[in-house]
Amino acid sequence: MGCIVGKYGQNCNMSCSANCKGATKCSRNAGKCADGCKKGWTGGKCDKGCQSGTFGRNCNKTCSSNCRNSSICENDTGHCIDGCAAGWIGEICNEKCEPGLFGVNCSSGCGHCLKNKPCHFETGVCSEGCEPGYRGNNCKKKCDYGLFGINCSTPCGHCFDNQTCHHINGSCYRGCEVGYRELNCTEECDNYFYGDNCSSRCGHCFGNKQCHYIDGTCKNGCTEGFKGSNCTEGCQTGTFGMNCNKTCSINCKNRSICEKDTGHCIDGCAAGWKGDICNKKCDNNMFGENCEQKCGHCANSSNCNPVNGSCQTGCDLGFQGPLCNDECISGQFGYNCMDNCSSLCVDGKCDKKSGACKRIAFRASSPNDENGNELYIGVGVGLFVIIIAAVISVVVVKRFLSSKRKPKEIKTPERSHCGFEMKTLGQRNGLKMDNKDETSHVYDGSISIIPTDSNYSNVNINTALDIPIDKLEIVIAEKRKNDNEGFRKEYAAIPSGDLHSCEFGKKPENVPKNRYKTTFPYDHSRVVLDNQSGEHSDYINANYIEGANRQKEYIATQGPKSNTLGDFWRMIWQENVSSVVMVTTLVEGEKVKCNKYWPDKDNPALYGPVQVTLMEEKEYACFTTRQLSVLHKKLKFTRVVTHYHYTAWPDHGVPEPLCLLTFHNHVITTSANNMKKYGLYLSPNKTTRGNYINAIASFTNLQHFIVTKYPLEENALDLLRLLSDYESDTVISMQPLSGIKSAEVRTVIIVEPEVEIQCSGSSVDTSQIRSLVSTVLYLETKQPITILSSDGASLCGLFVAVHSVIQQMNMDDRVDVFTAVRQLQIRRPELCARFVSFTE
């Protein structure tokens, strides 16, 4: 009988090894494990552990060489007893560290290896070097102070206060030292800049050279027209040239004012002189400013006075007048037209130089005239009378026949749908109408005679018969009776609502191009753009408008939207528009009424197919004019468009009439020789404000002057409050201040006359007024100027009127004294209220 399981030996008194595999079964006699040994044991009886460096069943496996400390592992599992060596992981340490990790248990991250490549998995060394800004074998140390870049080999630039730079890119944290630029502060200032961060622009150095990169000084001096070490100071009035060491010519018009670089007289030459610097006398037979006028017919072909053109020797044969430009009137001839034609000349007419009769009247005796009655014969007179009679007869017959063909009544056009149409009555009473030119002017915006909500609603209106000018005042007075009953009836007769079809503007693809939801162009008169890329690219909210001179004299359009700026300029180019009249602001309150469609100075902008450049901009009190250069990018052709922008249109109510008339007159006069097309758009009115203080407009600034009287002693503080509240930094006193006691320190500019200004008597001395105005014209201030006088009216009004007129002369080369005075009296009737102020 055998031993029980787990026992062996002769008496079954010995136990099988616990290291036997399979429930400790062993042979009965020898005790050998029947199924072999467990892992980590060897020998017949499985009583011997694996030798160091081996493991597994029967110890037939070798420990990993990646075990830390001499490859010692557990004899059953093979796990490294002390863990894995650097760079290895896994139960038996047979797996390398993942890229980016290294060291014991792969617990360390790689440094900043070049090109982000992984470091060595065991040591962490970056085999190809470090990224810029790092150093060391493992690339974990930042560059030392004052160094940056690859291998930390590049020194920092000229950082502010000698501080270090960024270790990677070398940028200076607090900017550069004075005179250096760019991110790393390694380059000296150039491109005509200098100083702190190269933020200061160089002055006008001679030869357009770069100034010193640190302090901005010009090494070779200044260009003509400037002075100072940095060449930033312009020459004072009356001087020019390099370092401003030359004096403007005394022959310049307007007190020797010339260009500060060339010395050219800005306003031209005084009478009798010519040339760029007005140093040449007029040539023979020329006189006046810039010698632009030709002498009249002086006697003996002598030269006229080069200043005023008068003939010192008198007029030549056949001429008279102060400049000898006027031919002798009928019946006179000779030098200065001092002689009378002979009585034998028919109608007393003779040659204006020699006095010879053009036709001589002779006496003929009639055979049948027994009494010797005289008969004077004028050759050709009878024929002339016959021709005139024939012409009159033809005209009378044609008018009679045409009047029979004309209908007695003119019917108003049938109404249709929305849009804008306006026809201007043709000129009558003998004024010729020229309808050959079919091009139009552009009127841009929401134009409406009927005050509907942004709706184009005009139509041909059959008004009353033409009113003679001499009867106009009587007709107006009649219509004003009974609370303007006549005007009310006329206004009520104006058709309202939509008159024609406007289906194109309502199409879904065109609706986003309309600024207002209910405002569309009439189909029959809309401006059709040339198609470009898309099927629906011909639409713009604009209509042709018939005028007195042409069928398509104007174009009315809305203020452009952001999505129609290109279409707007396509229309300008396509219709060859030369003038655009704008009567709105870009923004009213918080509402955008029109997107800006012109660029700023020195900043050209692209709008669709054209590039627009602002060449010139003039600001007036109520409006601004701009000259725009329009270059077609594809055609390589340039045109000039004049932009008239009325800036004083109120949000509510109606504009100030005189300002609007002044604007209209400026548009008419400056575009009289350029009868092409206009653009006009209107906006809601702005609320105007009134104030007890009289804000008076100059020619270029709507609120340039504040007119008031000298304060009483108890009200002196009010004057100082006025100066403070309105930020007025200049005071013009119309009387000397020597008689006014004052101990206060004033911080404003005070200008006063040397003596009392007199405005009465037969001879008025205007030198003091002119001196004050000249001083103010050269003041460089944008703040209101306060004008004081004893009554706050008489002398103040005279001063402002003269100032405005001189500004107009300087800007427009023309004068309108009436408008200047009228604008003052609208603000305050007491200004220029005396006739002597107007005439002197």
From TrEMBL:
The Tyrosine-protein phosphatase domain, residue ranges: 487-840
Keywords (A to Z) from UniProt: Hydrolase, Protein phosphatase
Superkingdom classification of source: Eukaryota
Keyword field contains NAD: no
GO MF annotation terms: protein tyrosine phosphatase activity
Annotated EC: 3.1.3.48
GO biological process: motor neuron axon guidance
Family of this protein: Belongs to the protein-tyrosine phosphatase family.
Listed name of the protein: protein-tyrosine-phosphatase
